[in-house]
UniProtKB/TrEMBL annotation:
This is NADPH oxidase 2. Keywords: Cell membrane, Electron transport, FAD, Flavoprotein, Glycoprotein, Heme, Ion channel, Ion transport, Iron, Isopeptide bond, Membrane, Metal-binding, NADP, Oxidoreductase, Phosphoprotein, Transmembrane, Transmembrane helix, Transport, Ubl conjugation, Voltage-gated channel. Catalytic subunit of the phagocyte NADPH oxidase complex that mediates the transfer of electrons from cytosolic NADPH to O2 to produce the superoxide anion (O2(-)). In the activated complex, electrons are first transferred from NADPH to flavin adenine dinucleotide (FAD) and subsequently transferred via two heme molecules to molecular oxygen, producing superoxide through an outer-sphere reaction. It is a multi-pass membrane protein. It comes from the Eukaryota. PROSITE patterns: FAD_FR. The gene is Cybb. Its cofactor is FAD. GO terms for biological process: defense response; monoatomic ion transmembrane transport; superoxide anion generation. It is found in: Cell membrane. It catalyses: NADPH + 2 O2 = 2 superoxide + NADP(+) + H(+). Its main location: membrane. Residues 19-129 form the FAD-binding FR-type domain. It comes from Ploceus nigricollis.
Amino acid sequence: TWKWVVGPMFLYLCERLVRFWRSQQKVVITKVVIHPFKTIELQMMKKGFKMEVGQYIFVKCPAVSKLEWHPFTLTSAPEEDYFSIHVRIVGDWTEGLFNACGCDKQEFQEAWKLPKIAVDGPFGTASEDVFSYETVMLVGAGIGVTPFASVLKSVWYKYCHDAINLKLKKIYFYWLCRDTHAFEWFADLLQSLETQMQERNNAEFLSYNIYLTGWDETQATHFVVHHEEEKDVITGLKQKTLYGRPNWENEFKTIAGKHPGSRIGVFLCGPEGLADTLNKQSISNSEADPRGVHFIFNKENF
């Protein structure tokens, strides 16, 4: 028995030593941004830190807990000179981080008063392969939308600086959420991308659909009254918010018809049930002919 136990224990100790070494490396919080609905954005810098799109890190704040590490998806792009995470305040640890950063105070917080942060990572996910395809479908459900903040930012930077050599030519983005107000920071990002792409006369590069799956009678009435307005009353985007859930069979067939003979990457960050649905649709809508359209499914569950 000891032969089977010694190996895994040795690897576990090595992993703990590496994490301890990483936790001692200096991390500087350069900016704290407070977003609506108790969501904060931490912008940080660390010597030698290199990331790819969609990756995540483990974060420890000794001022809150000396032992707890929590995973957060990176919402910045590799092209930016900092890395960032968005933290929604939903528990004791996140509440402690919120207070430690001085977000509960009205006055301006000095940089030297910000708490020390330890960072372990980054660690890879399936989203890193997004630039391997000419056409991609990005599907984010609820908080699963965070990896695509990094992806969309990076795509835009690459498009602006070297559009000719960028393999990715078309993005279909789907965002399913019960309440868009909880992720207003992401709606702001989409609004910025929408405006910049219109200025460059390439609004077709990114097609996106926002589905509100949880809504009440008040919202429905508001929607009917303001339906004819140019911008959506909930998100402020030109693309109107849709209510309910998407018909995935129709979506896949439509995209397959527009891109015959293509390899289309399907990327999901969401629950297991949605992953099963998209996987089945990817298989059923892929052609047997090697020269036909093929959907390649990649998932990240939470």
